[in-house]
Inverse folding.
């Protein structure tokens, strides 16, 4: 199994408060991995650790042979080029147009001239159904459009790995379904690996190859398997979660 | 939940309370038993708030055996109750639930029990899945940096250090700063600040001439109003007022802009691309200020000195040519460069305070407001401290 990222003994903490401890898992090439768990269990915090924004209290995040938090600047730049991130609220740079948002990563990491960058940015926007929003400011987009624009920005460097934080929260069912279809298409046509933090179980069952369950009480990962396997044979709390009801 | 008063019947069933009924005073008893502790609710609990003296005994839940980690609520002597029963019981039982004590609430009315089950931690009553509350986390963590004022100072020093490194990278042509951002910031801080800076320094110059003239007039030295205004405004007040005005106008704006970007994860998005936010966001603001501040201060000097003219001429009868000549005589290059340097230094302190607070703001709207307030207060304190220190140092050096 081709492993892109490996978490080794990862302990996540906010100050002195441990959020999750001793996480050990792999992210495999071309899989869709959903990270689920109750609110406050540390899903988004885990994402921040995986993308280099917050160093773990203990443990390592390995991209191939490189420890994300112990490599030199050149390696770090190369690693960053391999993944794109969609933040929970989109996090589009508000002072730039949507098109400029997409072109900034290209300006930083490619030798493309402006025309080529613009063409590629327009294509990525068309990919997420925002073909006519190139010159629009983020403030003029709806919540769902912001999310799609953020995904387009995350795709701007054609990353091998896409991190999505709550991609379908706040979207209507039609757009949430389109987003699921987009994720599957990216995996099928481009071989993109997708790690998504989500509460939307419909999306989990629609697109995820594996589900990681972070338990808020045990403060660790208590399950990692295919969604239907966990639904039928997972630990009790995982089944409760996936059934959306306590099994009393 | 039903708010109407109710009463427990002899059979333990809950029934509505007769309105004119009188009942024993409310109280409760904690009683250890062979199999479990019991909590007896007694009397009329309508509106009753149990005093702290009636809180659970420390022995309850102190050891691991079942008898001390199980509590049964006994409502047989509960004569009357209302909507305050659930909050009162929650206040008594929540600390026990957190200690891992299993609660048996079967004797309570359905709606009270349901409300308590919602409010108490899961698994605290034995109708749950039977698991116990999680043990306290004992994962050993590496030592953390200190907090409080010392940590705040360290953050500021680190921020200034990063800013210097970013400036060096800019000088070596390896910065992520965009020229368009620099021009935008120059426009924001310079021309747009001009009217308010001019207005305040005009009024300060006028005030200085008016008050100074009154004092000088007592010894017949009104002609020295021009000297007073020129030296005072050029050397000290133009820079000081420019710094103070920019602290409110620009420092607060920087803190709010960067704080909002922090709250919206825009700065995180930059970091994931490997973009240094100091280079990309702070450096254009700092350089923009550095380029326009001397011009703003110079303009403030001119306006402040000329503002003394109407007071001197109209109130103290100083001729216009004499006022202007005295101004030029008292204006030296030393005063000029000291005033420009001080004013520029104050405005740089404003940028550092605003950007430092904005970049280290929390991730919500309230935190952005707090960062803005801190930025303005810090900038003003730093400006006053810098003004005092620089004045003493320059005077002692003979300037």
């Amino acid at each position: 199994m081709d492993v892109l990222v490996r978490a080794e003994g990862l302990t996540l903490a906010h100050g002195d408060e441990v959020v999750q401890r001793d996480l050990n898992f792999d992210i495999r090439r071309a899989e869709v991995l959903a990270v689920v768990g109750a609110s406050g269990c540390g899903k988004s915090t885990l994402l921040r650790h995986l993308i280099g924004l917050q160093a773990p209290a203990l443990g390592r995040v390995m991209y191939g042979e490189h420890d994300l938090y112990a490599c030199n600047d050149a390696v770090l730049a190369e690693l960053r080029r391999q993944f794109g991130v969609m933040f929970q609220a989109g996090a589009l740079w508000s002072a730039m147009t949507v098109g400029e948002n997409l072109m900034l990563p290209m300006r930083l990491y490619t030798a493309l001239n402006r025309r080529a960058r613009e063409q590629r940015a327009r294509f990525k926007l068309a990919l997420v159904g925002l073909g006519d929003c190139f010159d629009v400011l983020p403030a003029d987009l709806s919540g769902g459009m912001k999310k799609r624009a953020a995904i387009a920005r995350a795709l701007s460097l054609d990353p091998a790995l896409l991190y999505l934080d709550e991609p379908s929260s706040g979207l209507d069912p039609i757009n949430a379904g389109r987003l699921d279809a987009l994720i599957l298409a990216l995996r099928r046509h481009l071989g993109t690996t997708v790690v998504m933090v989500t509460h939307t179980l419909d999306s989990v069952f629609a697109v995820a190859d594996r589900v990681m369950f972070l338990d808020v009480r045990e403060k660790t990962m208590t399950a990692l398997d295919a969604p239907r396997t966990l639904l039928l044979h997972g630990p009790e709390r995982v089944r409760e979660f996936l059934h959306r009801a306590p099994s009393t | 939940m039903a708010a109407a008063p109710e009463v427990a019947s002899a059979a333990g069933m809950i029934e509505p309370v007769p309105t004119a009924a009188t009942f024993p005073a409310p109280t409760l008893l904690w009683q250890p038993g062979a199999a479990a502790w019991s909590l007896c609710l007694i009397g009329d609990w309508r509106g009753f708030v149990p005093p702290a003296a009636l809180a659970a005994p420390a022995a309850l839940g102190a050891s691991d055996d079942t008898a001390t980690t199980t509590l049964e609520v006994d409502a047989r002597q509960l004569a009357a109750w209302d909507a305050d029963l659930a909050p009162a019981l929650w206040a008594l039982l929540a600390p026990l639930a957190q200690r891992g004590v299993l609660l048996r609430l079967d004797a309570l009315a359905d709606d009270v029990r349901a409300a308590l089950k919602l409010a108490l931690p899961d698994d605290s009553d034995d109708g749950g899945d039977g698991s116990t509350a999680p043990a306290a986390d004992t994962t050993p963590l590496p030592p953390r940096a200190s907090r409080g004022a010392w940590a705040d100072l360290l953050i500021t020093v680190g921020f200034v250090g990063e800013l210097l490194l970013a400036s060096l990278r800019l000088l070596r042509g390896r910065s992520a700063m965009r020229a368009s951002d620099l021009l935008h910031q120059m426009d924001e801080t310079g021309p747009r600040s001009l009217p308010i800076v001019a207005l305040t320094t005009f009024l300060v110059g006028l005030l200085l001439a008016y008050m100074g003239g009154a004092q000088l007039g007592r010894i017949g030295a009104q002609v020295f109003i021009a000297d007073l205004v020129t030296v005072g405004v050029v050397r000290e007040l133009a820079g000081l007022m420019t710094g103070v005005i920019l602290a409110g106008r620009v420092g607060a704006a920087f803190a709010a802009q960067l704080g909002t970007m922090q709250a919206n994860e825009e700065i995180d998005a930059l970091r994931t691309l490997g973009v240094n936010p100091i280079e990309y966001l702070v450096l254009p603001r700092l350089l923009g200020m550095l380029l326009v501040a001397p011009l703003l201060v110079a303009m403030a000097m001119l306006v402040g000195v000329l503002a003394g003219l109407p007071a001197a001429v109209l109130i103290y009868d100083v001729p216009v040519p004499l006022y202007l000549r005295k101004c030029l005589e008292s204006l030296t290059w030393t005063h000029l460069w000291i005033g420009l340097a001080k004013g520029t230094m104050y405005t740089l302190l404003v940028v550092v305070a605003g950007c430092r607070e904005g970049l280290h703001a929390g991730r919500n709207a309230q935190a952005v407001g707090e960062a803005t307030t801190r930025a303005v207060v810090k900038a003003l304190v730093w400006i006053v401290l810098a003004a005092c220190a620089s004045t003493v140092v320059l005077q002692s050096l003979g300037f």
Chain A has a mean pLDDT of 90. The beta strands of chain A are 3-14, 17-28, 32-37, 58-63, 66-67, 83-86, 161-165, 193-197, 210-215, 220-225.
